[in-house]
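Try it yourself: sequence plus adenosine-3',5'-cyclic-monophosphate, in.
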Amino acid sequence: MSNEQTLSIVKPDAVERNLVEDIKNIFIKNSLNIIDSKKIHITKDEASEFYKVHQSKPFYNDLCAYLSSGPIVVMIENAILANRKLMGATNPKEAEENTIRKLYGISIDKNSVHGSDSLENAKKEIEFFFKN
Ligand code: CMP
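Structure, out:
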């Protein structure tokens, strides 16, 4: 089992539809450990800081508005690649069968979950939400 950690988010669309436990269970059943987890509601400024890497993208403003539009659940898990495989492709329409985004995602914006894409970003993202 890998010692690396990743930051995972259950986004507002999935929290609103009471999918947090279902999504956590998919991770757990596939041998991922949820090391820490908390439900929070961030401001648009905080979302803008979190998604800074996307600031040049045309969807940046909508993305930040969306992540701050309702409660989210942020989690630390113990493997980056396993998390990303279970989430599926960013666009639910392109995600493989039985991935979280295929099962629950509504659109590329409301795609239910986020997961860090690299060890470097995972460290930054964990620090961002769990610094205290
Ligand atoms: P996430 O993994 O949280 O990382 C950035 C988010 O931007 C992504 O999931 C999508 O929800 C959102 N997004 C919106 N439009 C696009 C796009 N065209 N390409 C990639 N991500 C997009």
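One thing you can check immediately is this: The chain has a mean pLDDT of 96.
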